[in-house]
Design goal:
By secondary structure, the protein is of the alpha+beta class. It contains 21 helices and seven strands. A five-stranded mixed sheet has the order 1-2-5-4-3, with helices on one face. A two-stranded antiparallel sheet has the order 6-7. InterPro entries: NTP_transf_5 (IPR039498).
Length: 403
Amino acid sequence: MIPIIDIEKEFDAEMALLILSIRSHFKTSELDEISTFIQTHNIDWATFRTYSEYHKVQPIVYQTILLSGEKFTDLEKIKNKLQQNTLRNWQLAQETERVIQLFQKANIQAIPYKGTAYSQQFYGNLVSRFSSDIDLLIDWENLRPCIAILKKEGYTPENEMELLHGWDANLKNEENEYNMNLCQNDLRRFHVELHWSIGNSEIDFSDEATSLLYTKPEKQILIHDKILSLSDDSHFLAMLFHHAGKDVFSFLRNLIDLAQAAQKMDENQWAKIHADIEKVGLLHSYEMASKLIKQIIGVQIPKLIHVNNSTKTHAYFLQTLLTPDKWLSKKSKLANIYNFMYKRILLLDSKFRALRLILRHVNLLIKPSIKDYLFLPLPKRFHFIYFVIKPVRMFKELFAKNN
C-alpha cells in the first residue's frame, strides 16, 4: 500500500485525503487519520469535491469524512451532497424494481446489474455506491417487447438505433444496449439501459462473457420484493468485464466495486472466477485490478501467480488514474479513442487479441454510427453516403470542442 505521504507528494493533498477516506471505509486506515490530515493541511474543498465527483466515490468518501467528526468549511455542502445521493439512489432502486415487475407481468426476465443492485448486494445498503442509471440484462428476443412496455410508461428512446441498423442481426451484433429516458419538465428523471450483451463490437469479449453471467442466478431483495439477481461471483465478473473493457480502470469507483465484492467470495467462487476470466482472456485485467487495489486501497484479492504485468504498465495505469491533469484536461475525441484503445490493449492477454482489437477500433472510426443518422437522416438505400458523412461529422464535433 502506497504511503499517504507519498501520494500527497506525487499528486496533492486533496487526492491524498480522497485515498485516505477510501481506506478508512475498508479499515486499512483509521478514522482519526482523516481528522489529523484535515487539521494539518489546508484542504481546497472545491477541488476535493471535484475529485470525488469525477471518480464517482462521493458516498463512501463523504460518509467517512462525516464519521471522522472533523469540522471544516464545506461540512454542510458535503452533508447536502450525501443527502442528495441517498435520495437519488432510493429513487433509482424503486424505479428499478418497478420496471422489473412490469417486465415480469409480461413474462420477461430482466436481471439488474451495476447500480443500486450492486450496492445492495455487496455494500449491504442502497446508498454507499454512486449510481446514475438502471442497467438490466435481457434476452435479445425480448428487446422490442421491453421497449414497447417502457414507451407505455412514458419512456422515449435516447437514440432510435433501429433506424440505422434495422431490427435484424446488425443491431444485435453492432450494439449491446438500447437506452431509454423518462423525462419530466424537460429534465431526465431515469435512464434505463437494456443490455442483451455485456460488451459490444468495441470490446472483444461480448457473447462469451455474457454467457458466463447467467450461471446460478438467485433471488435477492432490492427494496420490497425478491428479484432475480446475478450470483455474487457473476456480478463480480460483470463488473470486471465492464470496468476493464469500458472504463479501463479510469475511476477509483472501479477499484472500490471490485474490492467491496471480493470480501464476500469464498474459495470455490474464486476458483470459478479465475477459470472464467481465463476463458474470456482477461487475466491481465484482473492482475492489474488486483495490483491497483493493493497499492491504493490496501486490500489484497487472490493473486494469479502465472500472470505478471510489467512494472512500467502498472505505473502508467496508476498515473493516469490519480493525476488530475490526465483526466480533468479536455482532450479531443481522437485523443480519447487512442488513450482508451492503448489501455485496452495493455489489459488483453494475447497479441492476437490486441491486433484484433486495433482492427475493431479502426473499423469503428470508419463505420457509420447512429450519430451519423441523427446528423442527417437518410433512407436505408442511401446509407452508403454515411461513409462520407461520418468524417465530416467527426471533424465538426472536433472543431466545436476545440473552440
